[in-house]
Amino acid sequence: MFAKISIFLRRYLKVWAALLSGVALCSAAVAVPTHDQVEFNPADAEGVKAVVLSWLHFVTNPWTPPEPYRFVGHLPPRAVMEQRLNNVKNCLDLMWVDCPQKSRLEERLIGNTKWFDSIELIAFGTSIFNVAWDNITVVGDKAEVTVTSTVRFGGFWLDESPGLWVSEGKEIDKFTLVKQDGRWKISYWYIVSGPGSAEIIYQESVTKGDLENPAKIRPLLEKARRLIGTPPEEVKKYLDPDLVGPYL
Amino acid sequence: MVKSKQWDIRLRAALVALLITGLLVSPVAAFAYDPAGACSYADRYALSPNPNYPYFEKDCTNFVSQCLHEGGGIPFDTAGTRQWYCQKVWYGWSYTQEWTVADRFWQWLINDNYAQNLGYWNYPQPDNNSITAPGDVFLYNWNTTTDTIFDHASINAAYGTDINSGKIGDLVDQHTTNRLHAIWHLIPYNPQYQTTRIYAARPWPWV
Asked: How far apart are CA A53 and CA A238, in angstroms?
């Protein structure tokens, strides 16, 4: 009787051992990388971040006048603005793969000086603050990114109720990037949420007479400049001058 | 002769019945859009959503649809390929993408001839556009440079001063970021304002 139980237990344990070793082998096979997988390179992530932040900087500043015309109460000469738009186009070539989205953007930028004929609003531009990288996945020559950024932006109203304002808002963007000729470029961009959610953090109304008075206007513009003029260093380091051109 | 008269009466009765049925099912004669009613509804529920409707994380189009239906009197559209409704059913809510998604809402509104397309404005949009009026709806494409898809919807609720920005013009009520009487172009609230295109539509008075 005892011998029978012993034989049964030995067989029972053998079956379990066989099953467990099979599971272990399968797990090992899954864990071993195949030749299709590429190791994650931290330098790639840094390159991706630079392109993404430079891109966000551009798309929120396409018609913003360059320095030294950025925080002033009048429009720059038309030639200055046209030069700026050409710079934008050159920089976009470095960040954007050749796809329909790109050509649509170029169509709007180049030769579009409608903004110039409007004396209603001069944009101060947009600065990016507090970037959170929710996801960066780099596999081979393709990267997926989700980023949450806080932005500040504003402008100078020159209409019948003149003044200036600065707002702060948050947005979430998704990107797909591909490596082309050794450079990361954007192939797809989608705004998950954000626009329409900002709140005004600084605002001043001025009279039409004050508009012409530099002593009255300069302190207000300086405050706007302090609020949005310079992004923090941790963001600025990614705004590669080669990508964002002469305007920061 | 008598038989022929009976047939004549039957024919006339059938025609009258057809006419009455036609009047009942045709939206043209049975309903009228009430812009003032839509504005009242919008003001009432801009900051505190109506508990009798579902409330979504991105609620802008659901809110404008409610304004048009509950306040403006536009009936649910449950016929055809594009349908626009939101109804409570035993298992929860039943609604269409035309009711909740901005781009689908616009296609229903314009392509099914429920509203007149009033045109669009690129940046820089003026505070006073002189075309739109309370009761009209606005559709926003944040990045007209890269796509042609509407991302947001609001309703023109009044003319006056946006107390947050000081701007004077058409004022909108909206959800997602819930706002009451914000300047219609949303420039002070939208980081992408330089690339935003705004379309406007006015529901037909006889929908």
From this structure: 7
CB contact under 8 A, A101 and B146: yes
Judging by DSSP bridges, how do beta strands A183-193 and B179-183 pair with one another? unpaired
Listed range (A230-244, B59-73, B131-145) with the worst mean pLDDT: A230-244
Q: Is the peptide bond before B49 cis (omega within 30 degrees of 0)?
A: no
Chain A residue numbers touching B189 (CB-CB < 8 A) = 167, 169, 196-200
Angstrom CA distances, A45 to A21, A51, A176, stand at 39, 10, 13
Judged by DSSP in three states, B201 sits in strand
Inter-chain contact B140–A196, Cβ cutoff 8 Å? yes
Q: Which two tokens stand for residue A148?
A: 């949450």
Interface predicted TM-score (ipTM) over 0.85:
no
Whole-model pTM: value is 0.79
B22 residue type, one letter: G
Residues 6 or more apart whose Cβ sits within 8 Å of residue B37:
B71, B72, B73
d(CA A80, CA A176): 33
Give the Cα separation of A31 and A24 in Å (integer). Answer: 11
Q: Which residue has the tokens 């959610």?
A: A197
CA A71/CA B120 separation, integer angstroms: 29
